[in-house]
Design brief:
The complex is a heterodimer of chains A (about 280) and B (about 100). With about 280 residues, chain A is mostly helical. Chain A is built from 16 helices and no strands. With about 100 residues, chain B is of the alpha+beta class. In chain B, helix 2 packs antiparallel against helix 3. The chains are: A mainly alpha (about 280), B alpha+beta (about 100). The interface of A and B includes residues 232, 241, 246, 255 and 268 of A.
């Protein structure tokens, strides 16, 4: 066991560069009642690196725009706020964590799973009585602890990934066995460091044990979405595996098989579109 | 959906007309989209209409359908290998399986 002490992790997380301002503002916007889209667009455009990458995606052939968009504000008008926000969050998080030093960590599979969970959460939000955009973002970020581990402790995390491969077990089990800590705990620490809104904090830290979360925690929905994304084979990981669907969480999100069945085509369509827009 | 020209003596009740059947004067005997009945077929025979263009349902090769089903079953069984036997996990399995079977790529 390569046990990672929580103190050591905490110190390392404190040393992370702060999230790009644009990302922080977008995250905070989820806790706000009224979102000032113009103001957010202005804030995003202050970050040149993020703006350049988002515009590159927005101007990619996928969208087939007649004329190119040159500013974030134009991108919001043409593509919609939701599309731009998901680009900014995905691009912003990626620029903060570099995972190429971690052997066995496949960033594309990670992203595909997160986007898949996002879309599943978005598609099931109505059934669960949850805000769709919040559900989408919570899905996008739910496994961020994995990203933090792979980028800050690449050697140790590679061992956990190898252990998972050998034992054909869930990643949380491998993390606990090898590191003594799992991605929900590390994600929770990161959420504190970066002052995530409470809902997103819950999504990150409680999605693997929703029954222990509060009945109205978004972790219930994210757990269901996480399981659904695995069941739909979104990551394209050959060895992927579906976790047991927690009956408590299913009950709490107003679980209805017909509603799930009817949401599936929309979830798959949204997934395909989002992957294309993010070039996954 | 394809179309097929069938000799009148091979028509069966329930088959759907893909192109209006007209007499020599151009009068419509059976409009497009109508399902044939015993009596309409009999009238076609009486009028000595040689053939009728009918809609042909694309009949899928049962072996291919079965192969798809088999592959699907194997993949979903594999994905669910650690999902347990709880009622919720089984119901999710079935929902995904039915969906994939219906929405074949």
């Amino acid at each position: 066991m390569t046990s990672l002490h929580k103190d050591k992790i905490a110190v390392r997380l404190q040393q992370l560069p702060p999230l790009p301002q644009a990302v922080t503002e977008l995250l905070a916007s989820f806790a706000q009642e009224d979102v000032d889209v113009d103001k957010l667009a202005r804030q995003i455009s202050h970050d040149q690196a993020i703006t350049a990458r988002v515009l590159r995606v927005a101007n990619s052939s996928f969208y087939g725009l007649q004329s190119k968009v040159g500013t974030i504000q134009e991108a919001v008008v043409v593509l919609g706020f939701r599309a731009v926000r998901s680009m900014v969050l995905a691009v912003g998080m990626n620029s903060t964590f570099r995972t190429d030093q971690c052997r066995g960590f496949d960033a594309e599979i990670y992203q595909r799973h997160c986007v898949g969970t996002s879309l599943a959460a978005w598609g099931l939000a109505e059934m669960a009585g949850c805000n769709r955009d919040l559900a989408f973002t919570a899905g996008l970020l739910h496994d961020i602890g994995q990203l933090a581990l792979a980028s800050n402790f690449p050697v140790e995390y590679a061992k956990a990934l190898e252990y998972q491969r050998q034992h054909d077990c869930f990643i949380v089990v491998a993390e606990r066995d090898v590191l003594g800590v799992d991605h929900t705990q590390v994600g929770g620490m990161l959420a504190e460091t970066w002052h995530f809104p409470a809902t997103l904090h819950q999504a990150v830290s409680e999605h693997h044990e929703p029954a222990a979360a509060k009945a109205d925690s978004i972790a219930n929905l994210i757990h269901v979405a996480d399981v659904t994304a695995h069941a739909l084979d979104f990551s394209r990981l050959q060895e992927d595996m579906v976790m047991p669907l927690d009956p408590v969480a299913w009950e709490r999100v107003g679980g209805d098989w017909l509603a799930l069945r009817q949401a599936l085509p929309q979830i798959e369509k949204g997934f395909a579109e989002t992957c294309q827009s993010l070039m996954l | 959906m394809g179309v097929e020209d069938l000799a009148t003596d091979r028509l069966l009740p329930g088959m759907v007309v893909a192109e209006a059947v007209v007499d020599e004067g151009g009068r419509v005997l059976i409009p497009v989209g109508v399902a044939l009945s015993e009596s309409t077929i009999a009238s076609l025979v009486r009028r000595e209409v040689p053939a009728v263009r009918i809609e042909q349902e694309v009949v899928e090769d049962p072996a291919r359908v079965e192969a798809y089903r088999q592959n699907l079953r194997e993949r979903i069984d594999y994905l669910f290998r650690h999902a347990g036997q709880s009622e919720t996990s089984r119901a999710l399995y079935q929902t995904i399986f039915d969906y994939r079977l219906e929405h074949r790529a």
